Amino acid sequence: xxxxxxxxxxxxxxxxxxxxxxxxxxxxxxxxxxxxxxxxxxxxxxxxxxxxxxxxxxxxxxxxxxxxxxxxxxxxxxxxxxxxxxxxxxxxxxxxxxxxxxxxxxxxxxxxxxxxxxxxxxxxxxxxxxxxxxxxxxxxxxxxxxxxxxxxxxxxxxxxxxxxxxxxxxxxxxxxxxxxxxxxxxxxxxxxxxxxxxxxxxxxxxxxxxxxxxxxxxxxxxxxxxxxxxxxxxxxxxxxxxxxxxxxxxxxxxxxxxxxxxxxxxxxxxxxxxxxxxxxxxxxxxxxxxxxxxxxxxxxxxxxxxxxxxxxxxxxxxxxxxxxxxxxxxxxxxxxxxxxxxxxxxxxxxxxxxxxxxxxxxxxxxxxxxxxxxxxxxxxxxxxxxxxxxxxxxxxxxxxxxxxxxxxxxxxxxxxx
Length: 417
Description:
Layout: H1 2-5, H2 9-17, H3 21-33, H4 38-51, E1 62-63, H5 64-80, H6 88-104, E2 108-109, H7 120-132, H8 138-154, H9 167-179, H10 184-204, H11 211-214, H12 232-240, H13 247-262, H14 266-270, E3 277-278, E4 283-288, E5 293-298, H15 301-313, H16 339-349, H17 362-374, H18 379-386, H19 402-409
Helix pairs in contact: 3-4, 4-6, 5-6, 7-8, 8-10, 9-10, 12-13, 13-15, 13-17
């Protein structure tokens, strides 16, 4: 690895003959696989060589205090030789790189144990119940557990037992979220998650009876919301805005095509693997976690071309099998949470973000449904395309079928009177 970074024999010899040479070189190889540039790899090599004289990785464990002490010893040594004082940012860079190195060697020990989440054991049991007995999807389980963590963290003073929690604590938490501009639908979902947990906790004897039954939430009427997305003409402008040659444009264009053409959810795009694309059969394999099944789509020519360009020109060679990766090192799979800012920023740049109630990745799913509805597809066909479990999930789009609503309005009901 050193030969790829340094050309001068004297410099190469210094890095090879320095202490912990093999451990340093192994870490550099790991960083190279994560997509770091040659300049950054040279900087990492310099940091590790500088610190190698001051840290002992052969001891049982190395703590953060040991790392910071070694960095400070290095700074004091440089100053004693007449060197300049390093900046706070450079010191933090040293600590960050050395910590990552020590972690990769398996000898890092946190200075203090991470505090266990409040009632983590009960939440773990509850999550297992939701998955094994209720058969809920991992995403739904994760969302409910996250909301429970928010609730437990909001308790002041801290509760040592679930028996110490009252309905007043639950009401105060829901009210606080309402005061922070949560929508009624979000508050209703939050209350449902809490009600589900306390109903189970009551059956296990963990809490006082009656809490679940007393949890109230805003009333939500069936299909009261309007699934609004950008107009299809605006979607075309959005896709055109990513037709450039920058790596970000090429990758984002492929992502936006999948969101708009197939109406995929952001998590479904993030979970796509290299083997999800059947080039010979010209189809895309999509994992539907809510339905617990695989759905196949024909590979539309324009979508295939966008993905091919990303694979050919942008995606780096790496061990990851996920289709979409980050652009900056360390190279890793693109998280679902990172797809929403991509769509939001692109819409905002076109001046469309502020005109939509939802301007994340999901609004393109609504745009896809609206486009299919305008093209004359039936609700059953639209539901199948979007991967809906029930026709009830698709009925909301009848409210944006303006041509159909006009036909209803023009009916002559005089003969019925």
